[in-house]
Amino acid sequence: MLDNRQVSFSGVQPSGNLTIGNYLGAIKNFPYYTENYKCFYCVVDEHAITVRQIPAELRRRTYETLALYIACGLDPEKNTLYVQSHVPAHAELAWILNCFSMFGELSRMTQFKDKSAKHADNINAGLFTYPVLMAADILLYQADVVPVGVDQKQHVELTRDIADRFNQLYPGTFTVPQPIISTSGAKIMSLQEPDKKMSKSDPNENAVVRILDDRDTVIRKFRRAVTDSDSEIRVSEDKPGVSNLITILSCVTGKTHDEIEREFDGQGYAEFKAAVGEACADMLAPVQERYKELLADRGYLESVMKKGAEEAAYYARKTLSKVRRKLGFVSL
Ligand code: AQP
Fold first, then answer.
1. Which residues are known to be catalytic?
2. Model-level pTM greater than 0.85?
3. Is the dihedral of CA 297, 298, 304, 306 positive or negative?
4. Which of 30, 109, 125, 225 has the least C-beta neighbours within 10 A?
5. Residue 2: its pLDDT value, please?
């Protein structure tokens, strides 16, 4: 069947238990594209190994991340859900694109600088070329849009530069993708260091709320969230902790920042934090329930992975053959 819809691509690393940052900034928005776009959503396990992983945990989280995709509303019949390492074309195109990516531009990537500082004992070449693999992920499917949190915007912009550079030499090869950053929840901050992004690999458990945290844990983490010595509940640059909580509540309830400020006018931080915790726990409850059912059925998850990998490979092969032909590789 001819499918003329635009293409949406995004991915999540199985590098830790997912947070409400991953959810509100990215996954929650994925189902929005299902009806009007041809959607590819990938569990990017090859990206995850740029940082050392424990093999059994990586395997377990790969299943869990796929189950979470489905639990968050992605129907495997309507979206191509798959695991990156099941489609070798990602790695193959990444090598080719490495030859069209500049050392200088990769050196400027904020995530590379941050992760190099965090993992000073393992600044491997994969960490450096991570954005090139990401470009391959996106360009393989000729994606028009890439829904991501704001931290990944720089990588999508680099993907655009690489695609443009390649297209100038070999016209008409790649669709140049557009990053789509959600207007709310684009950057959820740590509950303990609100000037830092909430990250699933943060070793401080109180800093992150995980999609699978139980109700009491969610409420406790919000109760412990860092605020300030003031008592006003309002968004302000000099109140990063409170501003982050308002943003989270706004994403969860759909209320505007103004509405939230008015609703909590005159109330204390303790009541406010309890309300954010309750609302967040309510949002997560149905996702967790569905997730548990899905995770209990590995056979089903494997059938989704297999079908997704076959579908993805079909589209990936088409792009890769075109690239190989344009470059002058001999085809047998
Ligand atoms: N705090 C966040 N707020 C909003 N969006 C976020 N994303 C991540 N953190 C936040 C978005 O989630 C998607 C998947 O991210 P990823 O797994 O590919 O890698 P990441 O951006 O490096 O996420 P983490 O949680 O910080 O992982 P680790 O700790 O392993 O590095 C992306 O769209 C991302 O923007």
1. 115, 197, 200
2. yes
3. negative
4. 125
5. 58
